[in-house]
Amino acid sequence: MPSARRIAELALPALVVLAAEPLYVLVDTAVVGHLGSAELAALAIGGGLLGLVAWLGVVLAYGTTGSAARLYGAGDRRAAVVDGVQASWLALAAGVTVALLAQVVAEPVVRTLAGDAEDGVAVAAVGWLRIAALGAPGILLAMAGNGWMRGVQDLRRPMWYVLGANVLSAALCPVLVYPLGLGLNGSAIANVVAQTLSGALFVRALVVTGVPLAPHPGTLRRQLVVGRDLLVRGAAFQACFLSAAAVGARYGAATLAAHQIALQLWSACALALDAVAIAGQALVGAALGGGDVTAARRTARRLTAVGGWCGLGLAVLIGAGAFVLPGLFSADPEVRERALVAWPWFVGMLPLAGLVFALDGVFIGAGDVGFLRNLTLVAALVFFLPAIWLGYRLDLGIGGLWAALTVFIVVRLAGLLARMAGGCWAVAGAPGG
Question: What superkingdom does the record give (predicted)?
Fold first, then answer.
């Protein structure tokens, strides 16, 4: 069973990688914000669309980590790296498709999202998106690289690759935007440079291993099945959070703003908890790949405990900041007041979320992604969506909204704990073995 120190050795570099992109986005937003409100609005639209590529990358990375970890645990590091090669082929194909498609559909999609915004916003967003989309192959190659390297428990190199690329972009962005006079397009170019460099570093990490670089149709099909299940699961998450925003908007601007404050803080907490999940993917996958089911179960219990303690620690921090944190985001007393209504639900959810994230990592490492897909769909369609719209009909306000999110977490936790207790998830052997 891995020690808490070993879990931390895997989780902390993963946390740095997870946090690097959001931190860079903050820098990019600050730089572009000084150009004017139209440019900032354009970045919000274009960046939101490009964020879907990052979401696809997370799906690819998680699926690759589990399979690579099982091969690594079986003592076949070479096969684990070959799994990374196949994931990289998928990443390249998807990235090139996105880059080309963006050149064609950027304008109609942006204008649909921009709605009644002034025409200059849509024009600027289209230009930004067409350039930034050229970095899609790099984004997805980097995520595939993160996936297989996590699987073989090599997390330090990905951390430096991602950090180096983001630091370069953060330094390049203001230079391109201001002294060189490229404006908003300078931000997009800086993104492309960083993402392409990051992707190239992960490709180099594959090449120097000396493994065959040819595509394997059978492995590609298996990865597509895993990716499909994780994609459906992710789509259920997106539907939940979009529905929450839609309900919040119906209560008015103050409620929506208060929900956004809590949601952004929730997203920050999720980054920390997701790092534990990534450690779980690597450790449980390796144990099962090595044929040690007992070790996998013990590891799952240890990771669940670590996730729960991390969630509890975050709950203490967020709870202690209840009368301070909302004020950092808004000076409007009505917004702060409504945020405080969500706070008990937000804080109470965090320890449970710590358990859920850790168990998600356990089952992804075990390759039990079909179960995760089905559980998430049930929690979203049968419990969360009816609860959130019932809360709206009863006029429960932001409290009803966050109560529904808590129900979503509780249902998933119940299903995950039942699955772990049953033990059918702990199947020894490498993928396809």
Answer: Bacteria
